[in-house]
Amino acid sequence: MPKSLTLDEMNRYERDGFVFPLRVLPAERARAYRARLEASEQAVGGAFVGIYTQKPHLLFTWLDELVREPAILDVVEDLIGPDLLLWSTEFFIKNPGDGRFVTWHQDDTYWHIEPTTQVTAWIALDDVPLASGPVRYLPGSHCDARLPIVNQPSPDNMLISGQIAQNVDSARAIDAVLAAGEMAIHHTGTLHESAPNRWTDRRVGIAARFVPTSVRSLKGRESALLVRGTDRHGHFDHEARPAADLDGAARAAHAEAVEKRLRNMHGDAARALQS
User: Fold this and answer.
1) Band (272; pLDDT cuts 50, 70, 90)
2) Which of 85-99, 241-255, 260-274 has the lowest mean pLDDT?
């Protein structure tokens, strides 16, 4: 029996490739995490750009704490098993009217892992109404053949690669409207996108990417953070938790981990993406 998800939610995930809303934090606790996130923004100069957008759980103790919340890990365990690596985290923050968006894409077309067993938890640190540009999912797309893609990087596209899936029939898309402390979780093959923020407040979310310890990278050895269970496979170097926000050891470990991650995803373009 699952630890957290109902059988209906498990069936919806298998059928649709996503499930939401899932309550994982009280609203006031989620907003407290938002306040800590915004304090961290100020500490790095007012916004997360460049290297700070990749694997920030290695830099900030509050984010390391968030991704270990038992309610989050219980959901992930229900879907991919008890031995869990946190492979990556990313900030997805849209300010009101800033014009940024995420194009239609499927994560497993550029992550280069085997097997392609991975889930993303998108955690809302405040309300995510329709006007804010929530994630939109295409039900069942994880079961379909992968669509052709083109890469068109743009300052407004929040995907580093600018990946755009072609010939998407978006008529059936479903918007993941969330309240503070809720999350959506999706399969690595699920088509998804998000529109610009037309609301009056920021859209503040964290994407946490989890894999079972049996997964390995096809492009080169990477690192990941063991957050539950044991690692009997050793396909990833184990990352260390930050002892203090932005301390020297955390910065060095973070830079090394991000370099490996971006190199495997983006090859020769990785160095420019870290600046």
Assistant:
1) very low
2) 260-274
Residue position matching structure tokens 């994880």: 142
Beta bridge partners of 223: 237
* Dist CA 79 CA 254 (whole Å): 28
Q: Dump pLDDT digits (tens) for 194-222.
A: 999 999 999 999 999 999 999 999 988 99
DSSP the chain: --SSS-HHHHHHHHHHSEEEEEE-S-HHHHHHHHHHHHHHHHHTTSS--GGGGS-GGGT-HHHHHHTT-HHHHHHHHHHH-SSEEEEEEEEEEE-TT---BEEEE-GGGTS-EES---EEEEEESS-B-GGG--EEE-TTGGGSPPPPEEE---TTBSSTT-EEESS--GGG-EE--B-TTEEEEEETT--EEE----SSS-EEEEEEEEEETT-EESSS--EEEEEES--SS--SEEPPPPSSTT-HHHHHHHHHHHHHHHHHHHGGGHHHHT-
> Which of 136-150, 229-243, 254-268 is most confident?
229-243
Rounded average pLDDT over 70-96: 97
Which pair of structure tokens corresponds to residue 164?
């755009």
Please state, as a whole number, how many other Cβ atoms lie within 10 Å of the Cβ of residue 243. Answer: 10
Question: Which pLDDT does position 270 carry in this prediction?
Answer: 47
3-state secondary structure string across 231-265: CCCCCCEECCCCCCCCCHHHHHHHHHHHHHHHHHH
pTM over 0.85: yes
Q: What pairing do the DSSP bridges indicate for beta strands 163-165 and 149-151? A: antiparallel
pLDDT tens by residue, 43-74: 999 889 888 999 999 999 999 999 999 999 99
